[in-house]
Amino acid sequence: MADISAVLSPADALQLAQDAAKAMWSRDHAAQALGMTISEVKPGTARLTMRVRQDMVNGHAICHGGMLFTLADAAFAYACNSYNRNTVASACNIDFLAPAHLGDTLEAQAVERSQSGRSGVYDVTVSTAEGKTVALFRGKSYRIQGEVIASFSQT
C-alpha cells in the first residue's frame, strides 16, 4: 500500500486526519469518560486536553501518573491513526518531570518523529496551561490490518 501522504493533497490529508479522529472519538469511551477533548489533529500530530479532577488525584494530592500516561497515550493514538490506518502501540515509556494538581488543565501534544514501513515513533509532551512540562512520553507504533474509517478507499 502506498504512503497516504503520497496520494493525497495536503488539504485532503488534513481532512482525512480529522475524519479519522472523529471516527475514533465516537468509539473512544475511555477518553470521553476522563473528560478529554481533542484540540487539533493533523497528519502525524494530535493535541488533546484534560482537566485534572478530584477522582484523578492520588494520595500525595497530585495527579495520578496513570492519568498523565493515559492522556499522553490518547494523543499518541490520535496522531498515529491520523493516516486512517489502524495503528496500535508496540511500546511506550514516560518520564514524569513535575506534578500536576487538582484543577490543572493539561495538554498533550503528540508529534511523529519517524515513520518507516509499519512502524513509527512519536513524542508526546504533557504540559499545564501555563506551559510547565509535567511529562515526556515516547510511543512506538505498529500498523495492523484495517482502516479507522472502513469506507475510505484510496484511488
Characterize the structure shown.
- The protein is α+β, with helices and mostly antiparallel strands.
- The chain has a single domain, classed as Hotdog Thioesterase (Thiol Ester Dehydrase, Chain A, Roll).
- 28% of the residues lie in helices and 36% in strands.
- It contains 4 helices and 6 strands.
- A 6-stranded antiparallel sheet has the order 1-2-4-5-6-3.
- The longest helix is centred in the first third of the chain and has 18 residues.
- The radius of gyration is 16 Å and the shape is globular.
- The N and C termini lie close together (11 Å).
- The mean pLDDT is 94.
Features:
single chain; 155 residues; alpha+beta; Thiol Ester Dehydrase, Chain A; six-stranded antiparallel beta sheet; 6 strands; 28% helix; 36% strand; globular
Instruction: Please tell me how large the radius of gyration is.
Output: 16 Å
Structural class: alpha+beta
Distance between the termini: 11 Å
- CATH fold assignment: Thiol Ester Dehydrase, Chain A
Assign an overall shape: globular
Quick rundown:
This protein is 28% helix and 36% strand.
List the helices and strands and how they pair.
Blueprint: H1 4-7, H2 10-27, H3 29-33, E1 37-42, E2 45-51, H4 65-80, E3 87-96, E4 105-116, E5 119-128, E6 133-143
Antiparallel strand pairs: 1-2, 2-4, 3-6, 4-5, 5-6
